[in-house]
Every structure is written in structure tokens, then in C-alpha cells.
Design goal:
The chain has 253 residues and is of the alpha/beta class. The protein has a single domain, classed as 3-Layer(aba) Sandwich (Rossmann fold). Helix content is 41%, strand content 17%. The protein has a seven-stranded parallel β-sheet with strand order 3-2-1-4-5-6-7, sandwiched between helices. Helix 1 links the parallel strand 1 and strand 2. Helix 1 packs across helix 8, helix 3 runs parallel beside helix 4 and helix 4 runs parallel beside helix 5.
Length: 253
């Protein structure tokens, strides 16, 4: 006698259930998608950003625990934010800060300092303020890039920052243990920031990458957000750098 066995959907418990995730730069792009993914895994989210209107919309959409609008490069504001968090948190994702492209000899001192402020110095400041707020086994996740690994005229100080971040990540992982510290190194990601930087050349760049990348598509904020949440969930990961660029660094893209 023939028959068929009905497939029963596999139920699994969300892997961040009851945990609190702080996303610095969480009102758009990679930060917002990370917050969305964390929410889908049961996390409570706290979002920060510079643009209060955009931040409010993101917080409302995700049912955020709270939002805070401030400039993350203001050390006093960053300290007030972490000092005002109620109790402990589980994870911090930092997506704030953008690249600073210019010929090295044409960069002013202030612009060069800002490039370091936006990345290495920001990592240290976040780590210092989060050290006593993140529970043991929780994680700090920072954003870096792969594009600066191939120096060229016009990248300016980006290759130096790119080289520094993995070593800084490893050092912070040792100092903050058992809190975990990891770095995501992305190539081109189709974000509002990329649109601002490229302007009218955005579609040209998208089409170029779809043709040349081994994955034959452009990396999206959701791709990066998925990786960030995996790093939060997998408690064996610390001190490491995780590339997500669709193979961009291996081709002439």
C-alpha cells in the first residue's frame, strides 16, 4: 500500500531571543539591515544615528527598545550614550564612518585625522565605553573594508586604515576577553552611502560588478547584516576579520 509522508516544518527557537543588540549607525544601510536580522532572531534592538528623523522611522519600523540621535565621533556623546544604557547588553554593531578618498599629498591634516577618527580611534572609544556594559561572551562587531588592500592613487589613507583594523581587532579581543571582538571587511555594498559617493555613476558600478564578480551580483546590506548576526550567535568567533565582498578583491573590479 502506497502512501506519502507529510513533511512537518522544523521549528527552531530564535538564536538571539531575549538578547539586546545595540546598532551604532542603525538608521539606514548595513546597520538597519543588521537590526532587522537581529529582530528576526528574537533580539531587542537599540538604534543610534546622526539623523533623528530617519532614526525615528527606523526605530518605529523595528519596534526598537530605544533610539538615540548623536554624533558617534563626539567622545562625550558616546560616553553619555553608553553610560545611560540600563543594565547590560549583549552585542554592539558599529557601522558609522565612511571612507575618505584623496591623494595623500593633497589631504589636509584635519581630513587625515578624521579618517583615523572615523575608524581606528572610534573602535577604541566604543570598546572603552562598552567594556563594562557588554556581558561576557557578547560581542563587538566593527566594519572595515577589502578595497584598500590594493593600494592605488586616489585611495589616500584608506589602505593604511584597512591594514590597521584587523590588528586592532585582534588586540581588542585579547584585552576585552571574554567579550568577543570581530571585524567585517566589506567591498562595495549597495547602500545609501554608496549612492552618495558615486552619484550618477552608481548604476554603471552596479552593472560592472554584476559582470565581474564571481557571485554575479552586487553585495547588499542584508548580506552583511546576516554575517553580523552570525558572528553574534557563534560564540567561538573572536579576534577575526571576515571578508564579504563577493570576490571583489580577487578580480579587476
Amino acid at each position: 500500500m502506497g502512501g506519502s509522508t507529510a513533511k512537518v516544518p522544523v521549528q527552531r527557537e530564535p538564536e538571539l531571543l531575549g538578547q539586546t543588540v545595540v546598532v551604532i549607525g542603525g538608521s539606514a544601510g548595513i546597520g538597519l539591515e543588521t537590526a532587522r536580522r537581529a529582530r528576526s532572531e528574537g533580539a531587542r534592538v537599540i538604534l543610534t544615528g546622526r539623523n533623528s528623523e530617519r532614526l525615528q522611522l527606523a526605530g518605529s519600523e523595528l519596534g526598537a527598545l530605544s533610539t538615540a540621535a548623536f554624533d558617534v565621533n563626539d567622545p562625550a556623546a558616546l560616553e553619555r550614550f553608553f553610560g545611560g544604557l540600563p543594565g547590560t547588553i549583549d552585542h554592539v554593531m558599529v557601522t558609522a564612518g565612511g571612507p575618505h578618498y584623496a591623494r595623500l599629498l593633497e589631504m589636509g591634516d584635519e581630513e587625515a585625522r578624521r579618517a583615523f577618527d572615523d575608524h581606528p580611534l572610534l573602535m577604541i572609544q566604543v570598546a572603552r565605553n562598552a567594556a563594562h556594559k557588554v556581558r561576557p561572551g557578547g560581542t563587538l562587531v566593527f566594519m572595515g573594508g577589502t578595497g584598500g588592500r590594493r593600494p592605488s592613487i586616489g585611495l589616500g589613507i584608506v589602505p593604511a586604515v584597512t591594514a590597521a583594523l584587523p590588528a586592532l581587532t585582534a588586540s581588542l579581543a585579547l584585552e576585552l576577553a571574554p567579550v568577543r571582538v570581530n571585524l567585517i571587511a566589506a567591498g562595495f555594498v549597495d547602500t545609501p552611502l554608496s549612492a552618495t559617493l558615486l552619484g550618477d555613476d552608481l548604476d554603471k558600478r552596479r552593472n560592472q560588478l554584476r559582470t565581474t564578480l564571481p557571485i554575479r551580483r552586487v553585495v547588499t546590506p542584508a548580506d552583511v547584516g546576516s554575517l553580523a548576526v552570525h558572528i553574534m550567535i557563534n560564540t567561538a568567533l573572536t579576534g577575526a576579520t571576515y571578508d564579504i565582498d563577493g570576490g571583489q578583491q580577487f578580480v579587476a573590479a
